[in-house]
């Protein structure tokens, strides 16, 4: 079994596990071939313990099926049902998602962060730290054109936490670093 705690929150129904394994473990294409029969089981193993919605896809039998970590699972389910998304490799609002997992509108990620913080359990906090701090994902929204980064933060100062905008410019859709948890 693959141990990949960072993978718990890759929120993409169409995640290519071969790409993920090559990136994480520096292995060849031949070593990452996954039998289609095993793919479903592999997806289930990446669901966070105690949840049915926190991971790529879900393990729920229906919308109301939640794991033992009920409040955390509700947050993940709501995040999974975000309607404004850009799947991996697709373009929307003149933005192309070059990541290997789905990116969401910033309002969905903001709601997800607030929900996990309100749940305030060990599981919700771990998921929040993984998704918002460790993975370093981005979200998108329509705002004034970004002209620079005023303040950097996060791990290795890799995130922009305060942007500089051209407030005279026309608003447009852009990528933004998600806030830390």
UniProtKB/TrEMBL annotation:
<dbReference type="GO" id="GO:0046872">
    <property type="term" value="F:metal ion binding"/>
</dbReference>
<dbReference type="GO" id="GO:0006644">
    <property type="term" value="P:phospholipid metabolic process"/>
</dbReference>
<keyword id="KW-0442">Lipid degradation</keyword>
<keyword id="KW-0378">Hydrolase</keyword>
<keyword id="KW-1015">Disulfide bond</keyword>
<feature type="domain" description="Phospholipase A2-like central">
    <location>
        <begin position="47"/>
        <end position="142"/>
    </location>
</feature>
<keyword id="KW-0106">Calcium</keyword>
<dbReference type="GO" id="GO:0050482">
    <property type="term" value="P:arachidonate secretion"/>
</dbReference>
<dbReference type="GO" id="GO:0004623">
    <property type="term" value="F:phospholipase A2 activity"/>
</dbReference>
<dbReference type="InterPro" id="IPR016090">
    <property type="entry name" value="PLA2-like_dom"/>
</dbReference>
<dbReference type="GO" id="GO:0016042">
    <property type="term" value="P:lipid catabolic process"/>
</dbReference>
<dbReference type="InterPro" id="IPR033113">
    <property type="entry name" value="PLA2_histidine"/>
</dbReference>
<keyword id="KW-0964">Secreted</keyword>
<dbReference type="Pfam" id="PF05826">
    <property type="entry name" value="Phospholip_A2_2"/>
</dbReference>
<dbReference type="GO" id="GO:0005576">
    <property type="term" value="C:extracellular region"/>
</dbReference>
<keyword id="KW-0479">Metal-binding</keyword>
<keyword id="KW-0443">Lipid metabolism</keyword>
<protein>
    <recommendedName>
        <fullName>Phospholipase A2</fullName>
        <ecNumber>3.1.1.4</ecNumber>
    </recommendedName>
</protein>
<dbReference type="InterPro" id="IPR036444">
    <property type="entry name" value="PLipase_A2_dom_sf"/>
</dbReference>
């Amino acid at each position: 079994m693959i141990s990949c705690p960072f993978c718990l929150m890759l929120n993409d129904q169409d995640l290519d596990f071969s790409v993920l394994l090559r990136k994480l473990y520096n292995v060849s294409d031949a070593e990452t071939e996954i039998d289609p029969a095993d793919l479903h089981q592999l997806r289930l193993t990446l669901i966070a313990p105690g949840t049915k919605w926190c991971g790529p896809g879900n393990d729920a039998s229906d919308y109301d099926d939640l794991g033992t970590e009920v409040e955390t699972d509700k947050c993940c389910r709501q995040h999974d049902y975000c309607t404004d998304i850009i799947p991996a490799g697709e373009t929307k609002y003149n933005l192309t998602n070059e990541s290997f997992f789905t990116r969401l509108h910033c309002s969905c990620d903001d709601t997800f962060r607030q929900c996990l913080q309100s749940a305030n359990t060990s599981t919700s906090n771990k998921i929040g730290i993984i998704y918002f701090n460790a993975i370093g994902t981005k979200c998108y929204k329509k705002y004034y054109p970004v002209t620079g980064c005023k303040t950097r933060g996060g791990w290795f100062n890799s995130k922009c936490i305060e942007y500089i905008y051209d407030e005279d410019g026309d608003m447009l859709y852009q990528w933004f670093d998600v806030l830390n948890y």
